[in-house]
Design goal:
76% of the residues lie in helices and 0% in strands. It is mostly helical and 197 residues long. The chain is globular, with a radius of gyration of 19 Å.
Length: 197
């Protein structure tokens, strides 16, 4: 009898995970089509083929959905950074890989740019913050700055990540070219500023 309950519980868990994944996939499609800043649970539900009330079983509000998308994207960025070189590549090369990933990511830009800490439920905030810390750690490792033990080193990694994110947002909006800058020039300047000594 308990084996049957265990199997049912496993099936239910797998079904919930599959539904959540389908909702996130639909949210990515809607975000790509309409912009992450315009993401609505109703539009995501329609894209996923669910009733709007069903989406609310997984995400209580827009902030939680956007943060979940961004956390997933941060996980992808952290993995890419870990694969980028384990301290063997120049900072500019690692920054280029991160820039390319962040630039193509509207959900991350929307989460960082429009959501204030506390807009989403605490568990969504913890997930996002954990992924952010993992991404910063991967950036430090990929550029040979790990382990970062002092406050100054930690601040440098946060500043480098902020610079990369800012470059990505400017590049995404076409503002770098309007300002007369090329990405590579700015990445090389970042390398001079943040590369380990």
């Amino acid at each position: 009898m308990s084996e049957t309950l265990t199997r049912r519980s496993e099936r239910k868990h797998k079904r919930r995970a599959s539904n959540r994944s389908a909702i996130l996939d639909a949210a990515r499609i809607v975000a790509a089509r309409e912009g992450a800043g315009e993401l609505s649970l109703r539009a995501v539900a329609a894209e996923a083929g669910y009733a709007p009330a069903s989406v609310y079983e997984y995400f209580r509000n827009r902030a939680e959905l956007v943060l979940a998308l961004a956390a997933d994207d941060l996980g992808q960025i952290a993995r890419a950074l870990r694969e980028a070189g384990n301290g063997t590549r120049k900072f500019a090369q690692v920054a280029r890989a991160a820039l390319d990933l962040v630039r193509g990511n509207g959900a991350l830009a929307a989460a960082v740019g429009t959501l204030e800490s506390g807009d989403a439920p605490p568990e969504a905030e913890r997930l996002f913050n954990g992924k952010l810390i993992a991404t910063l750690t991967a950036l430090a490792e990929a550029t040979g700055r790990s382990p970062v033990k002092d406050r100054e080193g930690q601040a440098d990694i946060v500043l480098a990540a902020a610079a990369i994110a800012g470059l990505a947002m400017l590049a995404r909006a076409g503002r770098l070219k309007a300002l007369g800058f090329e990405e590579q020039e700015l990445l090389e300047r970042l390398d001079m500023r943040f590369a380990p000594v």
